[in-house]
Model the fold of this input.
Amino acid sequence: MNQKNSLDLNKSFKDEDNPISLFKIWFEEAKKSELNDPNALSLATSDNTGVPSVRMVLLKSFDNSGFVFYTNLNSTKSKAIKDNPIVSMCFHWKSLLRQVRITGKASNVSDQEADEYYNSRSYGSRIGAWASKQSSILNNRQELNKKIEDYKSKFPNSDQVPRPSHWSGWRVNPNEIEFWLDGDDRIHERLKYIKDKESWKKILLSP
Done:
């Protein structure tokens, strides 16, 4: 096992009663060591028939109220969340040999939050939110390119591209968070936090 990781994790077990605080420590380390998208996570959902689906999304913010990502509200993932708001997230930081698994209930962010993040995006990304009917079938790539050009003509001023009503964010309010650290011979270290009303209970899990 990586000795530095082991010592850090054991210290965190002792000192951090709030998993969000521990996540912040790990996330800051990941931002230094992951070459691409340390905020990338796999998001698992299931639809109203119980069929699961998983895909990668990007974490855009987090605090004690939950973990936020943004998407088209008419996308497959959003439709599944509307049917079943209980979702699961997994961060895997290969450079650190660490994972964080989160389970919780998703709900929409406020319009103000969505507006603030949307307006921070590049002009092309904001146009893309209008042009792309996420997950719908395209006849060809040119069809999408034409829509992009049409919306650029409609919103030529990069400072005046309103957020479409079908584009917003989801906040996952966690009830369980597990921290996983790679160990030699697959004797990994696992610490799980379980929400108990307004506090968190910590338990160690076998590898």
Q: What stands out?
A: The longest strand covers residues 167-181. The longest helix spans residues 19-33. Residues 123 and 156 are 10 Å apart (CA to CA). Helices lie at 3-15, 19-33, 76-83, 111-120, 123-131, 141-154.
